[in-house]
Amino acid sequence: MIFVDDRERQSQIVSKFLEKNMPVQIKRLPFGDICIDGKLWIERKTAADFVQSIADTRLFKQIQKLASSDKKSILIIEGDKKIIEEKMSHEAMQGAFISISIFFGIPILYASCTDETVQLILYLKNQLERISVGGATKHGRKPKRLSNKKLYVIQSLPDIGYHKAKKLLETFGSVEAITRAKYHELMQVVGIGETIARKIREVLE
């Protein structure tokens, strides 16, 4: 079951879940915007709201609530990363990411749009269900938890959401190989154009 905070009732996320025939219950959550089966709590921010919530100090209060729970929690930032880069200094942005992911222990995932957020949540829900039955998949293999961690790392690159991270990992096979990939090699990956490839190389060099 997907639980959505009642303050998100009018957002696109609810209708998108219903389009995917995902069971949704709207209720007031103690923290976070979305909860998967009572096991994973999600704070969802658009790129613009992420910046604003840092400015008005809402974000770290919300992250503190997530971190104080004994449940797994993540932060999903939805939208164009350029909005964050344009409105925050590089130092402030990196400081926020380090505080959230390292000191509070909340992983940060990126989604380019609401549709990608829904796909990401569906993937997370499926993974949780597999783990709850002993980690077996329908093919009789355990889920690649290390691959999930690799996806988290890759999504920290500029303009890289879940789907692009998956394509990069499928193409190069490892995080190390991605960091060593040359500009023209990155551009050969579906969805990675000239601009994104350049940004990735700028961050890694």
Structural class: alpha/beta
Whole-number average pLDDT? 83
Overall domain count: 2
Number of helices: 11
Characterize the main sheet: 6 strands, mixed
Strand content: 5-15%
Low-confidence stretches: 134-144
Kindly report how far apart the N and C termini lie. 43 Å
Shape: globular
Task: Write a structural description.
This protein is of the alpha/beta class and 205 residues long. It has two domains: 1-143, Rossmann fold; 144-205, DNA polymerase, domain 1 (Orthogonal Bundle). Helices cover 54% and strands 14% of the residues. The chain contains eleven helices and six strands. The protein has helices spanning 12-19, 47-55, 58-68, 81-87, 90-103, 114-132, 145-154, 162-172, 175-180, 183-186, 194-204; strands spanning 2-5, 24-27, 34-36, 40-46, 72-78, 108-111. A six-stranded mixed beta sheet has the order 2-1-3-4-5-6, sandwiched between helices.
Structural topology:
Blueprint: E1 2-5, H1 12-19, E2 24-27, E3 34-36, E4 40-46, H2 47-55, H3 58-68, E5 72-78, H4 81-87, H5 90-103, E6 108-111, H6 114-132, H7 145-154, H8 162-172, H9 175-180, H10 183-186, H11 194-204
Parallel strand pairs: 1-2, 4-5, 5-6
Antiparallel strand pairs: 1-3, 3-4
Helix pairs in contact: 1-6, 2-4, 7-8
